[in-house]
Q: What sequence folds into this?
């Protein structure tokens, strides 16, 4: 080895120790992550504690479980009937998620495995709806859904949300990465598109399906403005609006029941999310790489 | 109205369209007469697209000057849009690009009827529940309409022009913009700082990821309720901690200059972990040899950060700005409604919250629709930025 190369490698080494200062050492990384996780976790942790406390226990700032768990449970479940709202939300979220996945699979199939005139116009027509978030349509949608007599029904919470440009896009993208030989082989074997979809594409798409499902489940679970407008009675109301019954009222806030309601309402989306977080992240990465 | 007004407006629009299309297609050497004719037609169509539904009301003599200029603006947008489209179509035709070509796609099934059968449910729902309300929003915005009352009155563009002269709405607009900038800026800035300290591959990355990102699954309403207690003036733990440590407290929810910060803190809390994760993933993809090479060339730590790391992260930063801005504009509604109710003194009323107040609480659908359209303009802006940056990504070659 010549002197020159040794020189350069020493230079590189010196530079490497210098630039390592930019890269955090392991314990700094752990420290930063632990502190961030703790700060992020604190509000929910405290909410769980308060959910078991009486108001006077809250005022004395104890970080230990209080004595009012069953009282608060009683208020939340029996007085404010949060359970019924939870059931409604589960029903609506499952219905919209399932419907959206199926409709998106079908439209993805049509865009990738069929030839038809004006395909890109139809695709543009679907994609254009990305610029029409429900929030800006809510006033007109309210008028329309009321006028066709759907208000106060599960249909009002489910039907308008069954189609999805994001879902169509996600499956189109996924199908286009599947080799064309697969569908050619399936056609040689005499499979119709329907069989091809369920026997070949769906088994290859579970990750994409899970990614769409977890994003949609949480999106629907968090519905607030729309159900607050379109549902009048409490019978079919969803949990986010139902929680208002714990906050509203002329009496002073009852901290324990409020927190218990908030915690209960967060359990289903947290479970879904933690089970499918890997697919969630990849789903976002997919949507980003359009 | 003077019966010649529509003709005059359309004639001017046609002239503008003709000139505009000639400018747009000046590189094409084809017949100026054809281009001018197409331009004139598209100019007139563009102006008519807005003015026929409005019945040319903005140009009536008894209207305010504001309405007149608003009408001019609308016509200009229409002319630009249709002429732009015409220039694109004409260009495609002149270059013999086929617009309705059936592209060959390998592995396609036969039968295009079946394709429409598969697409039908999606298209029907999009038309009924997205396109129809979308167009109806524009129609509603020209009306005085109330829920449950079938009779409506046409008010021309008053619902829009009154927004401009309405200090209350200007305050809402200002609130939304500065609070969104604060939410997005703090959330992304903090996330980058934390990610810079934490991006090295460490043991237990899966656990950290779960512990960072879960607030994404918490609804804005639940976040509002949890922080309603944390910020509470009498039993709130945040003021208790401030009081114990620094001997002062902040009237979070009762003071118009503090309340926006309460909303901002909740929103940052909810999105921080999500942003950290994306930055950690991005930082792990910055090639180490590039940083080493720069270090050898004598670049100091700041130069390396701003010249290499920041540009390499820019696709992720753009993505996060878009998602976080959308969140700040729309998803904060649930938090605001539970935490502050838009107050005190409307200091936390966002544009979305204002749509709800005007449309539902005051039952003025027309004004609410007009405010929705203002929101839509922001959505268009975001979408354009999104497509621009999606194109840029490719050039970085990262």
A:
């Amino acid at each position: 080895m010549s002197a020159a190369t040794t020189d350069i490698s020493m230079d590189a080494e010196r530079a490497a120790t210098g630039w390592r200062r930019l890269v955090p050492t392991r314990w700094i990384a752990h420290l930063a992550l632990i502190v961030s996780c703790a700060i992020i976790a604190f509000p929910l942790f405290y909410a769980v504690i308060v959910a078991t406390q009486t108001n006077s226990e809250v005022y004395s700032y104890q970080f230990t479980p209080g004595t009012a768990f069953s009282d608060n449970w009683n208020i939340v479940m029996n007085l404010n009937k949060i359970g019924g709202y939870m059931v409604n939300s589960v029903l609506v979220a499952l219905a919209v998620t399932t419907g959206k996945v199926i409709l998106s699979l079908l439209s993805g199939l049509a865009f990738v495995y069929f030839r038809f005139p004006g395909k890109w116009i139809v695709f543009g027509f679907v994609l254009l709806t990305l610029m029409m978030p429900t929030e800006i349509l809510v006033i007109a949608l309210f008028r329309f859904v009321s006028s066709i007599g759907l208000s106060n029904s599960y249909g009002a919470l489910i039907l308008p949300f069954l189609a999805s440009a994001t879902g169509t896009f996600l499956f189109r993208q996924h199908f286009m990465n599947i080799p064309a030989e697969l569908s050619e082989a399936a056609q040689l074997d005499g499979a119709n598109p329907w069989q091809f979809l369920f026997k070949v594409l769906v088994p290859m798409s579970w990750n994409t399906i899970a990614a769409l499902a977890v994003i949609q489940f949480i999106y629907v679970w968090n519905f607030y403005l729309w159900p607050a407008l379109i549902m009048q009675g409490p019978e079919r109301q969803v949990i986010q609006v139902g929680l208002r019954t714990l906050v509203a009222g002329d009496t002073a806030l009852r901290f324990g029941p409020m927190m218990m309601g908030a915690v209960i309402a967060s359990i289903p989306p947290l479970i879904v999310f933690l089970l499918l977080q890997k697919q969630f992240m990849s789903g976002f990465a997919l949507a980003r790489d359009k | 109205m003077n019966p010649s007004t529509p003709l005059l407006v359309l004639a001017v629009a046609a002239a503008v369209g003709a000139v505009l299309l000639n400018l747009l297609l000046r590189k094409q050497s084809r017949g100026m007469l054809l281009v001018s004719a197409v331009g004139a037609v598209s100019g007139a169509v563009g102006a008519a697209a807005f003015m026929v539904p409005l019945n040319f009301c903005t140009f009536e003599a008894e209207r305010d000057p504001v309405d007149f200029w608003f009408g001019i603006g609308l016509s200009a947008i229409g002319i630009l849009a249709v002429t732009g489209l015409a220039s694109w179509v004409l260009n495609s035709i002149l270059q013999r690009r086929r617009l309705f070509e059936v592209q060959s796609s390998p592995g396609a099934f036969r039968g295009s009827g079946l394709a429409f059968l598969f697409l039908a449910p999606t298209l029907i729902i999009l038309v009924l529940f997205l396109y129809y309300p979308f167009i109806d929003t524009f129609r509603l915005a020209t009306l005085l309409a109330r829920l449950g009352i079938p009779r409506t009155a046409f008010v021309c563009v008053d619902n829009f022009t009154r927004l401009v002269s309405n200090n209350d709405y200007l305050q809402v607009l200002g609130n939304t913009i500065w609070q969104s900038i604060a939410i997005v800026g703090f959330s992304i800035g903090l996330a980058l700082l934390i990610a810079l300290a934490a991006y090295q591959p460490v043991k237990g990355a899966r656990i950290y990821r779960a512990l960072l990102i879960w607030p994404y699954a918490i609804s804005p309403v639940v976040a509002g309720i949890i922080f309603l207690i944390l910020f509470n003036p009498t039993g709130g733990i945040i003021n208790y901690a401030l009081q114990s440590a620094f001997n002062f407290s902040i009237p979070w929810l009762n003071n118009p200059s503090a309340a926006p910060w309460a909303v901002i803190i909740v929103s940052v809390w909810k999105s921080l972990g999500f942003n950290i994760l994306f930055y950690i993933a991005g930082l792990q993809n910055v090639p180490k040899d590039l940083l080493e090479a720069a270090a050898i060339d004598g670049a100091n730590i700041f130069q390396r950060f701003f010249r290499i790391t920041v540009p390499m992260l820019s696709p992720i930063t753009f993505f996060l700005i878009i998602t976080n801005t959308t969140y700040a504009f729309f998803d904060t509604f649930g938090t605001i409604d539970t935490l502050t109710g838009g107050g005190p003194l409307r200091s936390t009323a966002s544009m979305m919250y204002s749509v709800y107040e005007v449309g539902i609480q005051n039952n003025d659908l027309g004004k609410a629709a007009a405010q929705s359209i203002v929101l839509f303009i922001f959505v268009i802006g975001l979408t354009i930025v999104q497509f621009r940056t999606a194109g840029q990504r490719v050039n970085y070659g990262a």
Observations:
- Confidence is low (pLDDT under 50) at residues 1-20 of chain A.
- The two ends of chain A are 49 Å apart (CA to CA).
- Chain A has two domains: 3-73, 75-288.
- Chain A touches chain B through 113 residues (CB under 8 Å).
